[in-house]
Amino acid sequence: MRQERLEGDWKLKLKLVLTRTGGCRAPNTALHACATLEFLQCSANSGAALFKYMGPPSPPYYTPLSKPTAAAAAASTTTTHLKKPQKLYPFAIITILCSLSYLFGVWHHGGATTPSAASTLPCFSISQNTTTTTTELDFSTHHHSAADGGTTTAVKTYPPCSIKYSEYTPCEDPKRSLKFPRDRLIYRERHCPTKKKEQLKCRVPAPHGYKTPFTWPRSRDLVWYANVPHKELTVEKAVQNWIRFEGDRFRFPGGGTMFPNGADAYIDDIGKLINLRDGSIRTAIDTGCGVASWGAYLLSRNILPISFAPRDTHEAQVQFALERGVPALIGVIASKRLPYPSRSFDMAHCSRCLIPWGQYGNFARIFVIRSFVLHSYNLWRDDHEIDGAYLIEVDRVLRPGGYWILSGPPIRWRKYWKGWERSREDLNAEQTQIENVTRSLCWKKLVEKDDIAIFQKPANHLKCKKFRKIVKNPPFCSAQDSDKAWYTNLETCLTPLPEVSTNEEVAGGALEKWPKRLNAVPPRISRGTINAVTPETFQQDLQLWKRRVSYYKTVNNQLGQAGRYRNILDMNAFLGGFAANLIKDPLWVMNVVPVEAKVNTLGVIYERGLIGTYQSWCEAMSTYPRTYDLIHADSVFTLYKDRCEMEDIMLEMDRILRPEGSLIIRDDVDTLVKVKRIADGLNWDSQIVDHEDGPLEREKLLFAMHVMRFTCMFLEQEIDYLKFYSPRPSLERSTLRLGLDPSTSQKLFLKTRPSIELTSNKDSA
């Protein structure tokens, strides 16, 4: 105990010396004090080891149980005196060795010379005015070829864009769209920048006052006004119960044009006509979705929707959907196919979506025999033209046996024709035209009740082929890839279903009901229609991603926290294994299959009951800024090597990622080093970590976070905002918004704009 007290006193005194002299980075005195502390620690450890090796001191010759004789006492004393010299030898040897170690350490650190502050290392951290540094894995090369010039390039930084780009969608830019034809809404389609000078090389900023969105399920009903500062819909759709403005937020009552009592009650009405609860309907598409209330309330029934609408006069409707945590994309049915494979959705929906379903096409006039019945298909005799290009596209993406639900004009026109401000003849002609197209597609009208009409696609085309012998239009499409849907023109021909042998057989293979569908081998794989993907490959992929996602959660523990992430993007999904292992969490994943991928697997993803889209990452995604809470990118940069610029892909990732959002990027180590350099320029907090199988794997992982840094660049945006909305910027108001203390805020304001006069709230008022 006495030895421990002495050791503690020495340590305390040495720490005081180090504190007063500036730690081990101070001159000679601190260095020697540091070395002395190391020596003392070495001596203490050696003494403890010696104590353990030789055992405790010899017990006294007297014990309470017996009293020794004088002869025994003398013998014991003689033995003790004989053992003392033997105990001193090991202790002396260890002391000498520690002394030599100490001297060698002093010599190694420069001997008696005074070390510089930069060349010394602290022996322990001092809490006063110190910063903690974390050692990260350094995978970068430290040699350069002649082509590199032998120099290390500086990190390129990316400044924030002007605040006017806070809602910038590169491929749906309203100004650029005006250059294209308005016929069939072609100008609302994707039109991406084609020239380098049109591409932004800056970070798209968040709007003024941006807040972290509400967590699900509160986000279904509430959105911060600052995140989507548009009140147009609150006025335009006030009667229809779409959206309300309440103080600093929007509230979504769940209403719609055709369901004023709420989307929940409307879906219940649909559920009385078709079964929405048995798992046979899992994926759905909502055309012309508005603020996506229909999709928002479908999620509680284990049905996963994709909602889409153009960026049009209903400003920010898709942006509202995404802020609510509902899967959505900017899109329109015009001259191109929808970016989904054939046979994707169990259900399609249109509630007053204003799409001219019976129009557009180039079919010849057909002659039909009225009242003739062939295999339950009613044919009629008349001279008329069959168009319906948009319904033909719905037929392509609808699964065999799938449903198309239509509400709104012209359904139930006899009741609503006055309110719709259209003539009865016009509405009757429109409904007749739609039903003619559905018959030509071999669909069956299941029911029309109140405001809802439901049609069903056949399970196969056996009867439809017999029907085509009499009615040849629309014809079956010739041999083509029906899954190809990236900038692919719409066709006015019927996409043929896979061959079957009986009328009861489902074309392409029957699917399991949800949730068994998720891990069952998809029919596209079991039938061998996907190149190089077998049932064994699928099972291996299941196990692979189970292990990978488990590892992700150990590195980023927020991934395992329910509610931390809601909207997730997988930039290279393959078979959807990443999304499948997150299915129990309250989130959804947009699975992207790049059009440059060797194998088109998006149809497999849909057969598993997941959702996704096609995308080329050389272009911007059809979504608003700040869409996703987490982005996962597996080998994306290797795939796009020599195809497009790495910084352009990362700037797009920065655009669609929310502030405080996360990224997981896995790729070859050499590629990740380049990614890390750009990530530093984007002000991401990032770190490269080892592969889940250990450090010997070349593939590494980069975990990053999109951090909103309140530096001078954000204060510039704040000043721009205040100059626009107020004649004189307010220091106190901006301090409150940015979360800075007044002194720091004033210094940064003066550093950013020295010429701007700083005023108080009273002055600015």
UniProtKB/TrEMBL annotation:
Query: InterPro entries, from UniProt?
Result: Put_SAM_MeTrfase (IPR004159), SAM-dependent_MTases_sf (IPR029063)
Localization, per the record, is: Endomembrane system; Membrane
Origin: domain of life:
Eukaryota
Where, by residue number, does the polypeptide cross the bilayer? 88-107
Q: Which SUPFAM superfamilies match?
A: S-adenosyl-L-methionine-dependent methyltransferases
What are the entry keywords?
Answer: Glycoprotein, Membrane, Methyltransferase, Signal-anchor, Transferase, Transmembrane, Transmembrane helix
- Indicate where this protein is primarily found: membrane
Gene3D superfamilies linked to this entry: Vaccinia Virus protein VP39
Keyword Methyltransferase on this protein?
yes
Presence of keyword Membrane: yes
Regarding the membrane, this protein is recorded as:
Single-pass membrane protein; Single-pass type II membrane protein
**Which protein family is it in?**
Belongs to the methyltransferase superfamily.
What PANTHER family does the entry give? METHYLTRANSFERASE (PTHR10108:SF1049), SAM-DEPENDENT METHYLTRANSFERASE (PTHR10108)
Query: Which named protein is this?
Result: Methyltransferase
- Organism equals Rehmannia glutinosa
